[in-house]
Model the fold of this input.
Amino acid sequence: MGIDSDLPKLVEEDSIARGVRCLLYPTTDNPTVAVHGSIRTGTPLEPRNHHGIAELATRLLIRGSRNLRSEKIADSLESVGAAISFRNTPDAILFQARMTTPWMKRVLDILSECLTKPSFERRDVEKEKEELLTDIRLRDDDPTRRGIRELLAMVYPRNHPYSQDKFGTAESVKKIERASLVDYFHDHLAKAPVIIAFAGQFKSDQALKWSGRTFGEREDSSRMKTVSGAPRNPSRKEIVMPYKTQTEILTGALAVARLDPDYEPLNLLNTILGELGFMGRLGQRVRDKEGLAYSCTSFLNAGLQGGNWTALAGVNPKSVDRARKLMEEEIKRVIDEPVLEQELEDAKENQTGSALMELESTEGIARTSHNLVHHGLGLDYFARRRQLFRKISIGQLQEMAGKYLQPSRTSTVIVGPKAKA
Done:
């Protein structure tokens, strides 16, 4: 069948300690090692009035520990061609590392220092705060990012974690002090459940011992609570940015969590609408045929606590009304008319092929195996999905369109300069 269907046989799962799950994919033909892990905390567990603290804490992890300064970390990694990174997401704080096998111990020791003994020195805190404040200004000045931020706030129920931008606001970030960062680390990063995946040429006992020593005993489950609430009423918002030359049109709606049974058919529908070929039906109609958009596509985001669907286009300000109308027509078409059988088969092949491409590298295997366990899908997900794909029909896709993409559920944000008369 392929490596995607063989993952349960190839990847070993171990619960090395309470709250710590390890996934091991040892090989002998590639002298590299990739690590992909997560700590089940982040933006949803930020203290009140400290929005942005998870992002700031994540950025500071690479700034040095009590034993290693950031300069020493950088020199030690660069000298052996290795890399370590950290990223804050709505569901977890992610960490990654890649290295050649002979330097595995050195790189893992550095990663352990960053994850367990961050120094949070005051000069580093102030420097990262300034960089985060700069990123907030850049975010707010970018029409696409501004539009997505506004749309998510309109789509998700009030106080839903996915409605919040992980950067926070300038006001909230300025209030964050070192003591609050230390408390956040000890209360959350040092206690939350961990999933960590290794792939490449390594010894399993070495990886397991390092994981147990680094993370110790953890909480059995995350403190994140399931968020519920009524969806927002559909609305429309226009944000004028007169100094820009392009206008962004964003239309979106509340969708589903990754484990929801509707995810697979809805994802195939989105593949047809905004991805297949070059930007799917939306791109073919609005960009290629009519020449009204620089880009026009759609995407489906699905996490542990929900998801959203978004269609977006970047257009000349004079073309906003016409482009928006064409986008609405294409969305209405998948509601009113079944997609073509060939389109459905192409979408299935697209998703199957994307998984196989991801699994061609050790980094891809580590990332994929981690993500499957993180989302609760299981390592046998791809084998089960092949069976499920055989059953998904064009009728189901039309049902998904009617259920999630109706105009009565979608909100719209337009960001850019006003068109000159």
User: Anything to note?
Assistant: The chain has 16 helices and eleven strands. The two ends are 59 Å apart (CA to CA). Residues 1 and 383 are 9 Å apart (CA to CA). The first helix runs from residue 3 to 10.
